[in-house]
Amino acid sequence: MADNPDPSRDFATLYRTTLAPLRRYLARLLGNVTEAQDIAHDAYLRVYSSAQTQSPDRPEALLYVTARRLAINRLKRRSISPLAREPMNEETAASSTPGVEQQVMARQELALLEHAIAELPEGCRTVLLLRKVELLSHKEIAERLGIAISTVEKQHARALRLLRAALPTDTAGQTQEALR
Questions:
Q1: With contact defined as beta carbons under 8 Å apart, do 12 and 57 qualify?
Q2: Is the pTM of this model over 0.70?
Q3: Cα-flanking dihedrals φ and ψ of residue 122, to 5°?
Q4: What is the domain range of residue 147?
Q5: 160 within domain boundaries
Q6: pLDDT over 90 at 104, yes or no
Q7: Diameter of the chain by CA atoms?
């Protein structure tokens, strides 16, 4: 991870190459596939958060050490709490939070969008943010900025056009829907 300037891309590669082996390792250690998935998820989150501030020299080793420590903590809790031994049913196992992969992809898309917005000309960026963040109408933006409504409409349309051109096709489609 340390050599590549894009830690998110490196993390995605680490995730894809280590997910199945890590889950198998944890399942053997814990004796429970569901718990192994939970621990793997927690380990990836911790390693990803850590990699955002400091790139580890050996990310796979950090991942396995983190996962093993989390698994050991889970085993200790099992011995203390009888409830921790009960298998989880479908109702309690379901989670509404997105998985690690979705979180990483969302962060990457957000970073791309933020960069594209920062690159917009100042007038376009101001109009876009007033329209999409503060939810002002074109008339209200015109009054606030002291410009004509037609200028606001043109700046808004130009901002959207420039964003479409600046964002990758797969991201731009989702982002364009959000910007409408």
A1: no
A2: no
A3: -55, -45
A4: 104-179
A5: yes
A6: no
A7: 70
